[in-house]
Amino acid sequence: MKILKFGGSSVANQESIKKVFEIIKESKKKDQIAVVFSAFGGVTEVLLRSASNAKHGDKSFVEAIKKLEDRHIELVRQLVPIHLQSTVLTFVKVRFNELEDLFHGIYLIKECTPRTLDYVASFGERLSAFILAEALKAEGFDAEYLDAREIIRTNDRFGNAKVDFPTTNDLIQDYFHQHEGLQIITGFVASTAKGETTTLGRSGSDYTAAIIAAALLAESLEIWTDVSGVLTSDPRLVYTAFTIPQLSYHEAMELSHFGAKVIFPSTMQPAMKKGIPIYIKNTFEPSNPGTLINGDAPAGKLIKGISSMSDIALLNIQGAGILDVIDVNRRIFGSLSSANVNVILISQASSEQITCLAIKASEVGIAKEAIEKEFFHEIRNGEIDVVHVISDLAVVAVVGENMKQNPGASGRMFQALGQNNVNVYAIAQGSSELNISAVVSKADLQKALNALHEAFFLSDNKVLHVFLVGVGLIGQALIKMIANQQQKLQKENLLDIQIHGIANSRFMAFHEDGFDLKNCPLPEEAPEASIMDLEKFISQMESMNFSNSVFVDCTASQDVADFYERILEAKVGIVTPNKKANSGSLEKYKNLKKLAGKRGVKFLYETNVAAGLPVINTLQDLMLSGDKVLKIEAVLSGSMNYIFSELENGAPFSNVVRKAKDLGYTEPDPRDDLSGMDVARKILILGREAEQDLHFEDINIQSMVPEDCLIAASVEEFFDKLKGHDEEFARLLEQAKEKGQKLRFMATLENGKAKVGLQSLDATHPFSTLKGSDNMILFTTERYHDFPMIIRGPGAGADVTAAGVFADVIRIGNYTRS
Ligand SMILES: NC(=O)c1ccc[n+]([C@@H]2O[C@H](COP(=O)([O-])OP(=O)(O)OC[C@H]3O[C@@H](n4cnc5c(N)ncnc54)[C@H](O)[C@@H]3O)[C@@H](O)[C@H]2O)c1
Ligand SMILES: N[C@@H](CCO)C(=O)O
Ligand code: NA
Q1: Is residue 584 classed exposed, middle or buried when 0-12, 13-18 and 19+ CB atoms within 10 A define those classes?
Q2: N or C end: fewer C-beta atoms under 10 angstroms in the chain?
Q3: What is the per-residue pLDDT for 370?
Q4: How many Å lie between the centroid of ligand 1 and the Cα of residue 667?
Q5: What Å distances lie between residue 246 and 23, 24, 58, 225, 784, CA to CA?
Q6: Is residue 561 in contact with ligand 1, taking CB distance under 6 Å?
């Protein structure tokens, strides 16, 4: 015998009921079964609300009950063929007439006792099971309606009656002995020895099914609902949550305590005592095996699931004299229990100086009052402080029997939380080692859950969640690079990079599971693209609240840079080739670095200078090791070097500038290069990295942009105007050639003074040998004194820049690895 129980969502309408009948049909082919039904979806709520309205003199119950009747009649018409409808319709009509009288009585006497309420509530299941039994008969089943009041005996604690198991078990066994047909049973309802109707409390239908399964020593109990079993975590917060194939009874109870509301612990008891396996299955996806709950805890993953509870507050009871107060804990818990406050978690350090309790936020007021009243004298004497409350908290708990005697679970848990910058307020672990709970800030809940989910479930891989703004030359090259390396990174580096948000200046798009990078769309091509709005992009990123997130800015935009503070505040790392933030005010530059440190995230910008060449990192290392920079001489512009070295081959100036742009060396607007601005920003950033308080105004900049080109409204117009200056530049080159020299656009920084401009250099000068997009940086330091440290190589272009950005992204991925 198998017991199947279908909840309200499974019998909400004609379509879902058809699915239920299919499942019953398939099960019946293989096994002997009995079926327990809840009321049709939402019916119990209407009944209870109407009773309360009637009691308060509100007549809206009349219409609500009429609607309910219509809904039941409609279902009869849909499920039962016309020639069989009359008995069913009569049954329904009689029940509703009775209900009407009942409500009227409640309305008149303005009273609804728990006993009446149980009777009212019983109509939901009595109607659904009767109608469904008749419908099944019409489908050819030997179905028989069974009103559970006949077989489940309880005391008269109405609303949450206690089952008299010896009597109930006998009744059930006798009944099934005498009835061979397919029993269609009302869930939730029962009766007292005197024949009064009672109900079994929350999730009562599950309980009904478990009671029957236990009495009949059923082979299994199947709870059919609208989710595919118990998931590893709340899927609304953890998108990668998945069905747990198997749980022990204890694990299921722990998990359902916080969060996983698929099954209530008390309802499992009867089945658990008899060792009957429970399956949690999805009516809407019957092929999914769902979750099996039984007595086993086979070796496997350290934990089975992660549950959570939000809207928690912590109460700290402490005080200088607390050690002298006798019986502190008994009095704390006694006062809370008298005030009906449920304690969720307790933690006390072995110093016994502080007792810390987690309770529901809604109960803070009464709890604080109760404790302070209890310790009135001690507080007045200063032995105990007033109760200290911390609000806006949540609890996360990892659950699993394999943690028992198996070191590592708490290590992994707190490492994951710590590395994601989630502060832990309190910790509790029972000696059963089945559950480790941590209290965190409510704002960190989703991040904490995801961090834990990744740490415990997503193989051993770390996921890095990327949000990319700027999908131009560099942005696109970056996406390609990540796509090409994705598999290798997963396999060899155990790092999984996913891009969840992309945007350019016009459109933005998001993907919860991460875009398919091999076919990653441009923002405007993405299925759910919307008009770009930077503030919304950031808000969406914040609300997705992934652990291990990085914001990649591949624009040259000041507007984007202006959001960095907010991004770092949200504990999201930043990687960027955009120089705007670091070359703005010195105060902002310093603040960003400080903020990143404070929030425990990385702000990386190696490609601000010389693209992928290791310039910033090298300089930072020099500084960390205590070196001091005396002088920097450099060619810092790939495009300017390309332009002036190519000019030597005889092409007109405007042509080579155009070529530099086509090769992807220039800024989005090449005037940023020609004007020396781009180089100025770079030398400024190098100076600041060398711990010099440098301002943009301190830099002497020689611009190469002719006056009339400056005012050109577009890049195209600029190119048109630039043609008119080809001869001037040819002349410049001639003059240099005559002296046997070369033109190079240089930057120098010495004694706090920076200078940027075109220089005519002897052919033997190291910079004269530079070709194409080459950059070259000479650091003269206290240690590299007689011979400078030299870094040289291509310093612009899509690939070498994207590679630098990529390396920074990986650095963050490795940093956040647990
Ligand atoms: N090209 C190189 O060799 C190189 C080297 C190092 C650093 N960089 C830096 O890389 C950055 C990007 O350069 P690129 O060549 O890819 O430029 P690009 O013009 O090809 O792309 C810029 C992207 O940014 C987007 N964008 C601009 N403003 C935006 C805004 N406010 N909001 C959202 N999106 C916006 C554009 O729509 C475009 O998708 C620049 O900061 C540049 O200095 C480039
Ligand atoms: N436009 C820059 C590349 C970005 O830093 C250059 O030409 O060097
Ligand atoms: Na670099």
Answers
A1: middle
A2: N
A3: 96
A4: 8
A5: 21, 23, 48, 17, 63
A6: no
Angle CA 440–543–805, to nearest 5: 100
* Torsion, Cα of 536, 537, 539, 540 (10° steps): 110
- The CATH architecture to which 305-456 belongs is 2-Layer Sandwich (3.30)
| Residue 472 alpha carbon to ligand 3 centre in Å | 19
Q: Whose CA is nearest to atom 23 of ligand 1?
A: 470
774 lines ligand 2 (CB under 6 A): no
Rounded distance between C-alpha atoms, residue 734 and residue 745, angstroms: 16
pLDDT at residue 257 in the model: 67
CB neighbours of residue 48 within 10 Å: 15
- Nearest residue by C-alpha to atom 15 in ligand 1: 473
Q: Which CATH architecture has domain 462-611+806-815?
A: 3-Layer(aba) Sandwich (3.40)
| pLDDT at site 818 | 42
Write down the catalytic residue from 682, 723, 753, 771. Answer: 682
Spacing, Cα 480 to ligand 3 middle (Å) = 20
Dist CA 769 CA 781 (whole Å): 23
Q: Cα–chain-centroid distance for residue 426?
A: 21
Question: Whole-angstrom Cα distance, residue 621 to residue 646?
Answer: 35
- Counting ligands in written order, the one closest to the CA of 642 is 2
Select from 667, 674, 704, 746 the residue to mutate for testing ligand 2; criterion: most ligand atoms less than 8 Å from CB: 667
Annotated active-site residue 404? The verdict is no
CB of 220 sitting under 6 A from ligand 1: no
Q: Residues lining ligand 3 (ion), CB within 5 A? A: 606, 609-610, 613, 615
Whether the CB-CB separation of 61 and 54 falls below 8 Å is answered with yes
Q: Give the residue, by CA position, lying nearest to ligand 2 atom 3.
A: 796
Angle between helices 14-30 and 114-138 in degrees, nearest 10: 70
Q: What number does CATH give the domain 616-796?
A: 3.30.360.10
Where exactly are the structural domains of the chain? 2-221, 305-456, 462-611+806-815, 616-796
678 lines ligand 2 (CB under 6 A): yes
Asked if residue 665 has its Cβ within 6 Å of ligand 2, the reply is: yes
577 lines ligand 1 (CB under 6 A): yes
Task: Indicate the burial class of 171 (C-beta count within 10 angstroms; 0-12, 13-18, 19 or more).
Answer: middle
Say which CATH class 2-221 falls into. Answer: alpha beta
Backbone φ/ψ region at 313: left (φ over 0), alpha (ψ -120 to 50), beta:
beta
Distance CA 183, CA 141 (A): 10
The rounded average pLDDT for each run of 10 residues, N- to C-terminus, in the chain (818 residues) is 95 96 96 97 96 96 96 97 95 97 96 96 98 97 98 95 97 97 97 97 91 98 93 88 92 76 81 96 95 86 89 92 82 93 83 84 96 94 92 94 84 90 89 85 94 83 92 97 94 90 98 92 94 98 88 98 96 96 98 95 97 98 97 98 96 97 96 97 98 96 95 94 96 96 98 96 95 97 97 97 98 73
